[in-house]
Write a structure and sequence with these properties.
By secondary structure, the chain is mostly helical. The protein contains 21 helices and seven strands. Among the domains are: about 90 residues, Serine Threonine Protein Phosphatase 5, Tetratricopeptide repeat (Alpha Horseshoe), CATH 1.25.40.10; about 55 residues, no CATH class.
Length: about 450
Amino acid sequence: MLRAIFFAIKVLIVIALAVWVTRQPGVVEINWLGYNITAHIGLVLFSALVFIIVLLFLHRIYLWIARLPAFFKNKKSQANVQKGISAVTRGLTAVASGDADASQKMALEARRYLPHEKGLTLLLEAQSARLKGDEVKANECFQALLNDKNASFLGIRGLLSNALAEKDHPKALEYARKGLDMNPRQPWIIRTVYDLEVQAQEWENAAKTLQRAMRYKAIDPEQGKKDQMAMILYQSDIMAAEGDDRKALQLAKKALKMDGGFTPAALYVARLLQEKDNKRAAIKVIETAWKAKPHPDLVSYWDALAPEKAKNNPMQRLRWFEKLVAWQPDSDQSQLAAASAAIDGGLWGEARQYLDRAQSLRESAALYKLFAQLYENTSQPEQARICEAKAWDAPADPVWVCRKTGRIYEQWSPLAKPHDSFNTIIWGFPQNAMMSLPFQSNGQDDFLAPDILLSHKP
């Protein structure tokens, strides 16, 4: 509306000027080549105006004709871009569906219509080459993507995926760190760097990356805390092997401080303290751990810490184990520990009381094995056989098991041999441990695959 009003005002001004000029007196006289031309000033000005308008009109026609080739070229270029984008879209769809021939065809078509495109077409060519099994060509395309600042991360991601597929973990770590530099807050790349650093046993770098992973939610906080403890205990073990017991104990205490009920840390600290002849402190560590979380591994060490007078006195030894019962009376592990001590000392009545209490809390294979042992020692072979049969049918007892492989271990370790997966040994049941294995395991051969277009060929 305002533009129309402004245009009308300009037209009125021009008309007013034209009227004013025509009303002014005066003539224009031109003598040229023997001709004498006389005209009113208004007519001359009007003719000049018409001439200028015609000249401008002819100039516009000239410009329009001059621009025709560029116009048609631009129209063709736009059509090619649309065809190229369509080819890329269909090609990536073919990659996702695993159609190698179609993806290669679309890659060639995309390159024909988008010869100067350095991003999507190279990505499509790389994926097509991968589907065809041509990893050399795929790597060349991903390397070429690094030269495009807008698509360089696609190149890094593709090279990383290829390195992981080829199990070239040092190269994968190099690419993953470059990707992390480009996207320092991206959870999946943080987690990939962490997993690769753990596999390479670069513990200092892994500890720093773990902090970042927890900050940006790349790893569950609870799992992150467990990994931190496992890392610290592994470093403590290295210090002990190198003869630096002071540093080893310092690190082990740091892990235990994070979770006083973590049995491996408690046992490790207690052992180091006992080696330093600090038996009282070792006993306190086991006591704290038992109060937090009773565990059968603590029982044997508790026995080793028993006073000398209790080792040859069955009743005194039972009293030593009854401390475990006092600290955790509702734990079947407390009752079983006291029952085992009573059986070893020939205290059959006390053993039966503790076994009955344990049975009321939880039936287990360990419970019925102790019952069978009790009956054998009290000349009741028939009852012993019945209990042995019950032990076979009773719920299995938990064990140290690798949640990645299902392999059973006698004790916990930061690295699960022989495959060296990090912090995958848990206290549980083999079948449950395997079922609870997360999509991204905590270590070695399984890495995040965040994008189907960058996963390895099927």
